[in-house]
Amino acid sequence: MLTLMRGLLRSKLGVGVFLLVIVAMAGWGITDVFGGGLGNNLAGAGNRTLSDTEFDGMVERGLRNATDSQGRSLTKEQALEQGLIDQIFQREQFDLSLRAYADSVGVSATRQMIQDEIANDAVFQDTTGVFDPQRYAALLRDNGFTSAMYEADVESILTIERLQGVPSAGLRVPSVLARLQAAYSGEMRNASWFAIPSSSLPDIGEPTEEDLQALYEEVQERLREPERRAVSLIKLSVDDFTALSDIEEEDVTAFYQAYRPERYTGPDSRVFTDFQFADEAAARDALGRIAGGASADDIAGLMSATERSGQKETIANQRLADQVFSPNALPGGIYGPQQVGETWSVVRLEEILEGDITPFETVRDDIRDELARDQAIDVFYDALPRFDDLIGTGAPLETIAQDLGTPLLSFQGVDRRGLSPQGSRYTPLLETPELLDQIFSRAEGRNTDRLGDQEITYLARVDEIIEERMPELDEVRDRLIFTWEQRKLNEALELASAEVQARIRSGETTLAQEAEGFEAELVSLERPLTRTNFQANLPPALINGLFEARNEGDLLTAPGLPGQIIVMQVTLIDRPESETLDVLAGATAAGLQAELERDLSTAFSMAIQGETELKINASAYEGYKRSIAPNP
Asked: Residue 579 is inside which H or E element, if any?
């Protein structure tokens, strides 16, 4: 049968019949055969699937608070271009695998767990801490959720949390491991050192012509001049148009008035009465009388009633503080009961006192600058089509720059790293990663593409290509002399430090005597260091060497400031005693526990992915992306 099918498919007739079958199946809605058993779903694992509608909702919610580099809302098209859609899809594949595995081992969240989680979420409770169905429905609607969608999200979160908690449920750090870590981190070390200055060494003399020639031949690859390019650049930005903005005084005043409560008014204070009760039941029974304005004497079970005023931190309970200082809170509002220590508190808001207002004169110039920049942004985006039109006509950069009213910048001899022959950075050429790549891919006289459009855009022209070359010795003589001198100086310093170490190890001298001989200051650490507290004014190589040393008295060397080498001796290695180690181990165990739980959870998740068969409908996913950007 298979042989017959293969033979048929080799003929034009067979291919035609096969295509007709495909079309017919698609017409009847039979697409599952091409989606790995997923139908129109994007992915599936176990009995769970991810539809394009569900995924689109996740993308919508994921982008709700996403912004670009300028703080503007991110569109789906931008998210697709930046790879965010693919990241969300990868995350959902991972979560799908975890939930499918949870189903197979019976740890998925139950219906009751989901309901309890929602009912106990303070976001969905009224001011008295009771679940409010109307508030719940309104918040879901405002955030693009249906009840089923939100419950599915809660089920997913609870299921994954339960599953990820499995590996660490019985994990406990062994005491021997905690003691080892405590011994390692609690060990204290000290050292003394001095610096041998190059001024105390014999003069190194001058290099001969033979020395320079030999060095020239040795370091030719480092001396070789790379290919460079002379470049002209148009850098058009919002700043080019800020000075052209025309902001009227009434616009500044209107902006201040509109944003005064939000931006120019300090935190308000609130006057409230705090009613204290012994238990929650008594507090709830009194809610009606408190709302009705009853006096303290008429409220049964009341322990105390205190009028207080202040800002948010005045209220110790975070839930109450958020409610009383909510922008929607009004005088007369009742909040609580909430537990505060051993008692239960109900708060009645009495009065809202406005915060300090920043005077208009103080912020006038800042507002004017902000409005001018907003206006300049609009002008900038209006200028981009003109920019593109000029490019399309083949106008030279000089004409484009003059038409747009922006300067034409010139750079001589830039290399692929954006550096001048003297090593300085040509910053405008480094502000967008693609610019230098395009400059070095264009022929002489050719332009780059116009790059960037978010408040700044670039267009460059290659004016000249300067081929790489090897400079003559005389051109780099000063650099060679400097390199020779530094090399000889370092060799002399290393020889001097080696002789010092040899004398100390032989017992001929001590570190203090050697420092005195070089007229150098002998320095010691102000206090011993540990591996978790190793801040000291020493080169990293000496800090590392201090903790790698095996014995007190060990000697170490490392370069110090220019023209110096440091000789250091370990003077203390103090390991914690047994009693101290027990205390340190207790503090160390918590950190180790967290690290082990993270590592074990990661390994567990990876193992789950290996155990769970995840199916991806690549064609359906590509179709979803095409629905966002039909012509990517």
From this structure: helix 578-611
